[in-house]
Specification:
- The structure is a single chain.
- By secondary structure, this protein is mainly α.
- Helix content is 51%, strand content 7%.
- Strand 4 and strand 5 form a beta hairpin.
- The radius of gyration is 20 Å and the shape is globular.
């Protein structure tokens, strides 16, 4: 009986013990390490530059053109699958044809205000937006501030750019962080797609790794 059980387990391992799922979890651990480092970097930069998002602001999340990669949505997908909530959010995103505004964004009472329903598992693009830099045409790192910060904290931004240019301020660089994503999985980090579509693909990948279904990867 013991041999039969061992054979059965080898042929049909528990969902969380399947090789595909283990590989996904390995990627998630690597992503969590990167996300933690980005958090430390953005918080240190914001504090040193004297910058802070206006309380309750959700302007950067409210747009309909936010894009992400499938890879950076994997931590959220795994969390929701393990908590039994993935299908709920998947269905909500499906109602939007997996396009439009982010399904996890919760608008507030006032225009431009809102919050994230899955803030702890938000993708890299959300962690970097507003507090990261990018090389300009001359290769110099410039602070990529959001519209509202540029409007309301222009003097702090000017001082921040001076500090970055002089080497006094360190800022996470978007292009460098994207390159780190490719080091985790170049294939899953290759395509920037609408954030709800990225979520769709990530959840389907987790489900497929658990043997739930053979999903159509054509979309």
């Amino acid at each position: 009986m013991g041999q039969l059980r061992s054979l059965w387990t080898a042929l049909f391992p528990p969902k969380n013990d399947r090789p595909g799922y283990a590989m996904i979890c390995e990627k998630v651990r690597a992503l969590e390490g990167q996300f933690k480092a980005v958090h430390v970097g953005t918080q240190a930069f914001a504090k040193a530059a004297g910058l802070k998002c206006p309380r309750g602001c959700g302007a950067c999340c409210a747009g309909t053109s936010v894009e992400a990669t499938e890879l950076e949505m994997l931590p959220l997908a795994v969390s929701l699958v393990e908590d039994g909530e993935a299908e709920i959010w998947y269905n909500l995103a499906e109602q939007r044809a997996f396009r439009g505004g982010c399904v996890f964004y919760k608008p507030g009472r006032k225009t431009g205000e809102g919050s994230c329903a899955q803030y702890a598992y938000r993708p890299l693009v959300c962690r970097l937006f507003g507090y990261s830099g990018n090389p300009d045409k001359d290769g110099k790192i410039r602070f990529s501030a959001c519209t509202r910060l540029r409007q309301e904290q222009a003097s702090c931004i000017a001082q921040a750019n001076e500090g970055i240019a002089a080497g006094r301020l360190n800022i996470p660089v978007m292009t460098q962080e994207v390159m780190k994503l490719t080091g985790i999985d170049a294939g899953l980090a290759r395509d920037l797609i609408p954030i709800n579509m990225a979520f769709k693909r990530a959840v389907e990948r987790v489900w497929l790794s658990q043997g739930r279904f053979a999903c159509n990867r054509s979309t």
